């Protein structure tokens, strides 16, 4: 008899499992894949290079609570992520900053000059409702066309004018020289990889792990009181309101017999090629190895669900599933796919911790 069946061994499920097990609950956690760690799974390829099987994962957060919580399960390697964009034959810092604009246009602007540059080119038309509105209303159409429009079309399969403004807001333009992709207080990579972090997180006598198993096949076989579900919410309800669209990715890995392949961890290709970016893993992991492995990302409409597509009509469909989830007894929905939100890793951890805090509070109330 288990207290909880947890569906999914990614951050949402693993954090819930660890917290509940530490609180004395018996937990069984399952995943259809043959490994733990969800999309954060990393492993050594045939050449011995540590790679992220499902694309690059870079940890960053503003929350001391989340960083301290995860620090129980890993040591850290300090790492600040930087991205270059291949635009007009140059490799330029992205997000856009002073150096991006000066190098692109052959200017010598300071911070005040750049702010004026943006203001003179901005096309403001009221509140930004779409990603196009958000970018064009801040920095103007030329930079939007060079850095955002085509990349977004490739990544999401639709024009930025059809996506919620929140997508563009994730990558703000800057008026300083800061070329870091993230500006969070805590930025680091697990010293021994994400998979090792998950192994330590799930190493508890109260946790049973079942892999290569669909939870529907497990339900008749085990007894449990409640379920925590981190898969796609529409799949849980058999698509009764229609399928929610997700964007998927196809990864093409290449290993090269040399120390470095490119001049940075990630290079975006907004206007060239079918792929969106190339990632070289040794920059992320700090691994010393005579060879190097890179991955090309090709967005797809079908395949494993990675990104909920933030459009108004999709939000309306999700709201119907959310209403159904709210009245489904003994099932708790958590994570990017189960709540149809474009979360970073730390946001998923925060959501999972909040759920367990809530369950613990309800348990104390019932006991009283």
Provide tags for this entry.
Rossmann fold; 7-stranded mixed sheet; 35% helix; 368 residues; alpha/beta
The value of Rg in angstroms is: 22 Å
Q: How much strand content do the residues show?
A: 15-25%
CATH homologous superfamily placement of the largest domain: NAD(P)-binding Rossmann-like Domain
* The CATH top-level class label of the largest domain: Alpha Beta
Widest sheet, order of strands = 8-7-13-14-15-12-16
Q: For the residues shown, what is the average pLDDT? A: 95
- Biggest sheet record: 7 strands, mixed
Give the end-to-end Cα distance, rounded to a whole number of Å. 24 Å
Global geometry: globular
Structural class: alpha/beta
Number of domains: 3
Number of strands: 17
CATH architecture level-2 label of the largest domain: 3-Layer(aba) Sandwich
What can you see in these coordinates?
The chain has 3 domains: 2-36 and 202-245 and 308-367, Rossmann fold, CATH 3.40.50; 41-64 and 71-82 and 180-191 and 246-300, no CATH class; 97-169, no CATH class. Helix content is 35%, strand content 21%. The chain has helices spanning 11-22, 64-70, 98-105, 111-121, 131-139, 141-156, 165-169, 194-201, 215-218, 233-236, 281-285, 312-326, 345-367, and strands at residues 2-7, 27-30, 42-44, 50-52, 59-61, 76-78, 83-87, 90-94, 186-190, 207-210, 224-229, 246-256, 266-268, 277-280, 292-300, 307-308, 331-333. The strands form 4 sheets. Strands 8-7-13-14-15-12-16 form a 7-stranded mixed β-sheet. Strands 10-2-1-11-17 form a 5-stranded parallel β-sheet, covered by helices on one side. A 3-stranded antiparallel β-sheet has the order 5-9-6. Helix 1 packs parallel to helix 13, helix 4 (111-121) crosses helix 5 (131-139) and helix 5 packs antiparallel against helix 6. The longest helix is centred in the C-terminal third of the chain and has 23 residues, at 345-367. The two termini are 24 Å apart. The model has no long low-confidence stretch (mean pLDDT 95).
């Amino acid at each position: 008899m288990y207290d909880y069946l947890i569906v999914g061994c990614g951050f949402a499920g693993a954090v819930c499992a660890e917290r509940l097990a530490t609180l004395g609950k018996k937990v069984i956690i399952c995943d259809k894949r043959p490994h733990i760690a969800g999309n954060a799974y990393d492993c050594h390829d045939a050449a011995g290079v540590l790679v992220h099987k499902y694309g690059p994962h870079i940890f960053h957060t503003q929350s001391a609570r989340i960083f301290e919580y995860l620090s129980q399960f890993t040591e850290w390697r300090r790492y600040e992520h930087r991205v270059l964009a291949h635009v007009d034959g140059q490799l330029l810092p992205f997000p856009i900053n002073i150096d991006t604009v000066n190098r692109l246009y052959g200017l010598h602007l300071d911070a005040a000059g750049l702010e004026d540059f943006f203001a003179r080119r901005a096309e403001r038309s009221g509140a930004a409702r779409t990603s196009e509105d958000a970018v064009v209303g801040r920095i103007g159409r030329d930079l939007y066309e060079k850095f955002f429009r085509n990349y977004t079309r490739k990544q999401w399969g639709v024009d930025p004018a059809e996506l919620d403004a929140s997508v563009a807001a994730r990558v703000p333009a800057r008026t300083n020289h800061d070329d870091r992709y993230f500006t969070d207080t805590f930025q680091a990579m697990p010293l021994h990889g994400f998979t090792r972090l998950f192994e330590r997180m799930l190493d508890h006598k109260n946790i049973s792990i079942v892999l290569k198993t669909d939870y529907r096949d497990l339900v008749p076989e085990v007894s449990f009181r409640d379920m925590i579900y981190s898969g796609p919410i529409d799949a849980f309800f058999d698509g009764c309101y229609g399928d929610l669209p997700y964007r998927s990715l196809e990864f093409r890995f290449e290993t090269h017999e040399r120390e470095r392949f490119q001049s940075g961890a990630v290079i975006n290709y907004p206007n060239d090629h079918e792929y969106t970016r190339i990632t070289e893993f040794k920059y992320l992991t700090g691994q010393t190895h005579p060879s190097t492995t890179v991955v090309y990302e090709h967005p797809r409409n079908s395949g494993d669900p990675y990104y909920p597509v933030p459009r108004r009509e999709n939000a309306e469909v999700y709201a119907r599933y959310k209403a159904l989830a709210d009245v489904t007894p003994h099932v708790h929905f958590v994570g990017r796919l189960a709540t149809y939100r474009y979360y970073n890793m730390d946001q998923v951890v925060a959501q999972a911790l909040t759920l367990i805090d809530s369950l613990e509070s309800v348990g104390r109330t019932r006991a009283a």
